[in-house]
C-alpha cells in the first residue's frame, strides 16, 4: 500500500474556478486512503498504481495519485479554525512590534534540530537568529538582491557580514555587523543612502546589558598553547551561503569538533563569543583548536546569573597557511546545575 503522510495543497490565486471545480469533484475507483487536512479544510485522497507511468485525467487536468475535494465543515467551525490558523501563521511568519522597531518571530524546533541531549543545539539557535534578521529586512519592504541586503546596498554591490557575535542562552543575543563590498570582498563604510534607508527601522538599544557584554580580548591559540587540535575540516557545498562563503553559523560545529567529548556530554554551553577574522571558501581546509581557560575571571562575569563551571578558548585557522578564521570563547555549566 502507499504510505500516507500529511500533505498541504495550495491553489495558485490565478487558478480559474472551473479548473478548481473539476479537480474537487474528481475521484477514481482505486482510492485506498482518505484523510482530512483540517488546517486547509481539504480532504485528500491518495491512490496507488502498479504502473508508475499511469496517469488519470479529469477535464484535461492530469492527476497522479493525489486528488482534492472540499471537506464538509460547518460555517461556525470554519470561521473559528480559520481565525486560529491565521494567528498561528502570522506568528510563524513573523510580525513587527514596538512601533515596527522590533521584528518578532516564533519558531518550532524540529526533531533534526536537537542534539543527543534532546535540546536545541547552538547552531539551531544561531540559525533562528539569522532567519529572523533576514525576514526582518524582507518584511520591512526595503529588501534588495542578496542575503539581507537593502535596495540601496544592492545598487552599490554591498553585503552584510558579521565580525563579532555574543550569544547568551536564555538571554538576548548581541552581534556586530559590518558592510562588505560584494566584488572586492573588502569592508566598506556605510553609504549615507543606506543609512537613510534604515533610519525608520533603527532602534538605539543594546540587546545585551552593558555590564554583560563580553569585551575581553580573545587570545590567539598556537600549536603550543592548544590542548586539542582537529585537522582536515573541509567545507561542503551546503555549508556555503548566498554570499559565496561559508555561513557564519557553520563555524560553531567546527569549533565543537575539538571540544572534549565529556564536556559535550555533561555540560551545557551557556555563552559563546565569536570574532570572525576572514572568509572561508569551499576550497579551504580548516583546523579547529581548543584550550581550557585556567580560571574564570570575576571581571568576565558581572551578572549573578553567569557563573560558568568551565571556560574554553577556541581558534579556527586555515590549515595551509595557519591564518586565523575565527577566534571564540565559550562558557559551560554542568547539566545537573541547569535543571
Automatic annotation (TrEMBL):
Residue intervals of the Acyl-ACP thioesterase N-terminal hotdog domain: 102-174
Keyword Lipid metabolism: yes
Superkingdom field: Eukaryota
Major subcellular site: plastid
Listed SUPFAM superfamilies: Thioesterase/thiol ester dehydrase-isomerase
Catalytic EC class: hydrolase
Keywords, comma-separated and alphabetical: Chloroplast, Fatty acid biosynthesis, Fatty acid metabolism, Hydrolase, Lipid biosynthesis, Lipid metabolism, Plastid, Transit peptide
GO molecular function list: acyl carrier activity; fatty acyl-[ACP] hydrolase activity
One Pfam short name: Acyl-ACP_TE
InterPro entries listed in its UniProt record: Acyl-ACP_TE_C, Acyl-ACP_thioesterase_NHD, FATA/B, HotDog_dom_sf
A Gene Ontology term for the protein's cellular component: chloroplast
The UniProt record lists the keyword DNA repair: no
Residues that span the membrane, as ranges: none
Positions of the Acyl-ACP thioesterase-like C-terminal domain: 225-333
Family: Belongs to the acyl-ACP thioesterase family.
Name by which UniProt lists this protein: Acyl-[acyl-carrier-protein] hydrolase
Species whose genome carries this gene: Phaseolus angularis (Azuki bean)
